Amino acid sequence: MRLSNSEEKYGWRLIALALAALTLTLFSGSAWGQITGAGSISGTLTDPNGGVVPGATVIVRNSDTGATRDSATNEVGIYTVPFLQPGRPASSLIPLLVSSA
User: Fold this and answer.
1) What is the CA radius of gyration of the chain?
2) I want to staple 40 with a disulfide (CB 3.0 to 4.6 A). Which of 21, 63, 82, 94 is the partner?
3) Cβ contact 26:35 at 8 Å
4) How many other C-beta atoms are found inside a 10 Å radius of the C-beta of residue 24?
5) 44 and 92 share a domain?
6) Per-residue pLDDT reduced to its tens digit, 46-90
């Protein structure tokens, strides 16, 4: 049984798609390698009375490099600052409140 030209083209397209998917699967691990050794900080920002602070900006500073990263608290005061590079351990971590909604 001979395939028509359109069926043959469809077959080659299917093979090309399968190879592309396989290539993406094999090389997707290298992207995860870019964040090796990174950490994150998360917590709940509260005021002196213990109430949560929604909509605030939290800044985290690397004491080795001076680089800063910022995040906003959600409606219940929770923040997360992901993909932080390792640095010297701090005796205490105090996120800086920059602004509040």
Assistant:
1) 24
2) 82
3) no
4) 9
5) yes
6) 888 989 989 988 888 877 777 888 889 999 999 998 888 877 655
